[in-house]
Amino acid sequence: MKLPHDSQTFIMHCGEMGSRWGFNRTVGQICALLVITEEPLNADHIAEALSISRGNVSMGLKELQSWRLIQLSHKPGDRKEYFTASGSIWDMGQTIFEERRKREIDPTLSLLRSQLLAHEGESNYRIKRQQEIHDLLELLTNWATALGSMKPESLKSLMKLGSGVTKVLELKSKLKSK
């Protein structure tokens, strides 16, 4: 499977960004390939397209399945497993956020809750700061959960509104400084 240069560039970039998104380079590349490829691909197609070992592909596909970012399918008369990206780009973004919340934010909130309960009634600098961190993470989690339940069209409108508010605040700040 020969990929156009622009596709290769995009896939390589996603591989480099993978570590920033919570997974390794190979997983980022596999995910990118599946996102931009219309037809389902099997592991052999993926290995050939990305010039990586079949074993690396297999591990990457398992990781993407654990993140719920790809779907498995079969073709009649073919014993191979085929993979596609799960849902729309909005769905995938929401899934990544949910998975990162489960893997990163929830354990931190759990630790903070247990420590705050163990030191209930105390009021020192460390406890106050941990309470602030807890409250911020709780607020962000609740906000993100509410956003995650919105339809993509409503979320896009809200995001556009947010950028409009930012522009108004910037203009207001410029006017004040004059």
From TrEMBL:
Keyword DNA-binding included in the entry's annotation: yes
Annotated organism of origin: Marinagarivorans cellulosilyticus
GO MF: DNA binding; DNA-binding transcription factor activity
Name of the protein: HTH-type transcriptional regulator
Lineage, broadest ranks: Bacteria, Pseudomonadati, Pseudomonadota, Gammaproteobacteria, Cellvibrionales
Transmembrane segments: none
Family recorded in the similarity comment: Belongs to the GbsR family.
Keywords from the named record: DNA-binding, Transcription, Transcription regulation
Domain HTH marR-type stretches: 22-80
Keyword DNA-binding: yes
